[in-house]
Design brief:
single chain, 97 residues, alpha+beta, 3 strands
């Protein structure tokens, strides 16, 4: 975790944990605005609305929520925000299956 100090790590970890505990329905209900790359959590996780790799993007990440086919969908890592399905961040994990 080069470049992170303990405080940033705990802040991001806490937000991520909160996001992971919310159910998909709750995420869809609260998600209202698109995530901006300038958002502090997005910056900490190096979110970009366009993935540098075609095979690794928000659309095939295990944390993405919502309906297939939507351009912007809720993400468990960024509660209350919609991510671009073509985006990417350092929390990306390939969806099983």
């Amino acid at each position: 975790m080069a470049g992170y100090n303990r405080r940033d790590f705990l802040k991001v970890s806490g937000k991520s944990l909160i996001g992971l505990t919310l159910g998909g329905v709750a995420l869809r209900a609260f998600a209202q605005e698109q995530l901006q790359a300038s958002d502090p959590t997005a910056e900490a996780l190096k979110y970009t609305p366009k993935s540098p790799e075609a095979s690794a993007n928000c659309g095939n990440c295990m944390y993405i929520q919502g309906k297939e086919g939507e351009q912007h969908r809720p993400c468990a890592i960024f509660p209350g925000k919609l991510v671009n399905v073509n985006g990417w961040c350092t929390a990306w994990v390939k969806r099983p299956g």
